[in-house]
Amino acid sequence: MTRAAEDSAASPTTWRESRAPVRSAPPARRRSAVRLPRGGAAAPGCFDPAAALTVEEQRLTASLPAGGPAVGPELVRLAGLDPLVAEVKRDLCAARTPRRAGRVVTQAGDRLWRTAVDRAQGRRPDLGTLDRFDDRPLYWARLQLSSAIRQWRPSFALPDRGALLTAFDRGSRGLDDVRFPLGKPRRVMVSGFDPFQLDGTGVRISNPAGASALQLDGRVLDTPSGPAVVQAVNFPVVWGYFDEGIVEAAYGEALRDRARRPDVIMTISQGRPGRFDIERWAGAWRGGFPDNNNASVTGGVPPAAGWPQPDVQFIETTLPYSRMLEVTGAYPVNFNQAFCVWPDASHPGAGTPVCRSDAPAPGEIAASGGGGNYLSNESMYRSNRLRLGLGLTTLPGGHLHTPVLGQPAAPEALTDNDFEARRQAIAGEVVSLVTAAAEGVRAPAAPPHPAESPRAAMESLPGTVLPR
Questions:
Q1: Which of the residues 17, 66, 340, 447 could staple to 353 if both were Cys, CB 3.0 to 4.6 A apart?
Q2: Strand runs (DSSP E) across 220-370, as ranges?
Q3: 155 burial class (0-12, 13-18, 19+ CB within 10 angstroms)?
Q4: Which stretches within 55-207 are classed as H helix?
Q5: In this structure, how many other beta carbons lie within 10 angstroms of the beta carbon of residue 41?
């Protein structure tokens, strides 16, 4: 499949306003090792298996080298989400009009997201045996249903299958579930990411940023400044979605709502081993690392149509990092000031990037922000470019990188106690860091430069590509 075909198949075509209620959440539990059993389940019948799927959707059949059923569907089953998937497929097969089909997929997306959040926050103990902090069942259930929508053979002329995919995807990522209350509570909006690097044994990968978003959505955090309400969404690891403006749609609709505007925005992704990083700089460059559809894009970050976006190379965080650095937990918290520029501003993309830890000079062209040059950096850049374009120059905004989670120890295991404990520890510390950010204390002058090599800081990030 060509990149253009993948983008048109996997990316949304329009993004609409989103709204949601506020909820709260209970404590965690641990699970023992879960290994792959043998066997599989059949799919319902009004679907064309020959219809093309995206690369992401094709991974639904991927199993481990040790054998067993496909990993993604097995995780969905272990989380108790397979009846929901089967019911949506039956409803889609029963749809007899475009209007009914639209209702089915819209409700399916919303229901999948809400069920995943409720399960993650302990309100659905009836759903499966898998650790409730596990973000992977949401990811794979979404792919099961997007592939069903793509392969569905309706009994009527279907005017726009892409619109159905967009409606489902929006709901299943929480974009239609963002609504802040009026009044005094502070408002915080965060975003996580899907799992990525899923080829081979990586098919087991979980993303602690996505797991953290599920833990945070709808939470009311207790801060010294009073309660803070959090709304969360989860982004795809697909360049095409970013081209279509998913980041701007998510944060923009919230930021331009003056009555309920968030007081803090924070993008979150998985970063370096063994530590959290609050990133100082976001850069306007894509390094070309392949996404979840194996598409690669190199060059400047393009604008998203319909939003005010200044033409800037670097954007500095306005998060209250000094307070966030006081958070203690299982992992240290670092303020990363590294960034990289191209040696010749008139030829971006050529030569070896120069990495530093001071501040970009006027006219320098970004080769990497502190968060690298993959989609995590781009989520910070796009959300904060929009923040600046809307004139919200002092509103706290920035990016948090979580520690790398890793995988279960045994090559045939889908989970184990240590894997789950690490994910829970990361998610718990993310909640503490978001709570600290919600207090709204302004950051002081930047602390002293770290001893770590700026280039080493960049190259330790998954997905970052720096030519030599």
A1: 340
A2: 220-223, 226-235, 264-270, 276-279, 281-283, 285-287, 298-300, 314-316, 333-336, 339-341, 354-356, 366-368
A3: exposed
A4: 55-58, 71-78, 82-94, 98-120, 136-151, 161-172
A5: 13
Token couple for 326: 């006081």
Distances (CA, A) of 68 to 55, 166, 215: 21, 33, 30
Q: Which amino acid is at 136?
A: R
Q: What is the pLDDT along the chain (468 residues), one digit of tens a residue?
A: 333 333 333 333 333 333 333 333 333 333 344 444 433 343 457 999 999 999 999 999 999 988 889 999 999 999 999 999 999 999 999 999 999 999 999 999 999 999 999 999 999 999 999 999 999 999 999 999 999 999 999 999 999 999 999 999 999 999 999 999 998 889 999 999 999 999 999 999 999 999 999 999 999 999 988 999 999 999 999 999 999 999 999 999 999 999 999 999 999 999 999 999 999 999 999 999 999 999 999 999 999 999 999 999 999 999 999 999 999 999 999 999 999 999 999 999 999 999 999 999 999 999 999 999 999 999 999 999 999 999 999 999 999 999 999 999 999 999 999 999 999 999 999 999 999 999 977 677 767 666 678 888 888 888 999 888
Cβ atoms of 330 and 249 within 8 Å: the answer is: no
- What is the Cα gyration radius of the chain? 21
d(CA 86, CA 92): 10
Sequence-distant (≥ 6) Cβ neighbours of residue 156 within 8 angstroms: 96, 97, 98
Helix (H) or strand (E) holding 418: helix 417-438
DSSP class of 60:
G
Contact 280, 317 (CB under 8 A): yes
| Amino acid (1-letter code) at residue 263 | D
Q: What kind and span of H or E run contains 407?
A: none
Q: Token pair for residue 375?
A: 């989609």
